[in-house]
Amino acid sequence: MRALRVVGLHEDGKSLVLEDPASRTRFLLPADERLRAAARGDIARLGQIEIELESQMRPREIQARIRAGESVDQVASSAGVSAQRVERFAYPVLLERSRTAELAQSAHPVREDGPDVQTLGEVIAYAFGVRGNDYSQAQWDAWRGDDGKWVVVLRWKAGRSDNRAHWSFSPGAHGGTVHALDENAEVLLNPNAYRAPRTVRALEPARDSVVQPTLDAAEEVPAIEGPGDPEDDDTREIPRVPGDDDAAEETPAKPKKNHPIVPSWEDVLLGVRTQRG
């Protein structure tokens, strides 16, 4: 790199005349804002001028878009410059947003009868505890809306779902106030509106219905017989018919059927099970 020396101001009054001492070649350098910032050693101003030259988006517009909720990457993509150059102007605005979100947690939710005694952060922490969510993993942020008022947002994950809740924040005495802007914000401010999900129990396999009769057919309770009634049909006397005596003697007796033993009425009342032969 060759070193040039300053000859003086050009006759137009807007440029400097430089000269190469070795070749005596002269150069014309515009005396613009960029040169003046370099002469002062103002690096921040040089970066700002560089963005202004490379992009149609001015630094004030970049900061306005960051303040409105856009990220550094979104603004850099819109401006057509690197994220590092946008961060130079976004950093103070990001600090402002973070500070506002922190202040909003100390504000008081406005209810039907006035501001709550508890702060927004206390109410949300309790609501997360009731739901079993990890409050330490939730993220707070804030930005300024089109109406000039600050909007506070809370982001958290529940299972596989990403959730958001928004409040409008009005700074003021004793921490200021917040108003719910959507359904999630209203539900978080009202823990009584939360209903724990019912536990789904696994269906047990249907048990085979086993019918266990108290008495078998052979153990059915006999009807109560009146006094003088015979207890067994086999013991009843069969009237004899004249002339059938011989036939009755020659005819072998039929084997007695294997009738089940019928328990006596006393056994039934006492619960004694008759032994079968």
From TrEMBL:
InterPro entries associated with the record: DUF3071, SepH-like
Pfam families the UniProt entry points to: DUF3071
Report TM segments: none
Residue ranges of domain DUF3071 in the record: 1-169
Q: Where is this region: Disordered?
A: 212-277
The leader peptide range reads none
Name assigned to this protein: Septation protein SepH
Originating gene: sepH
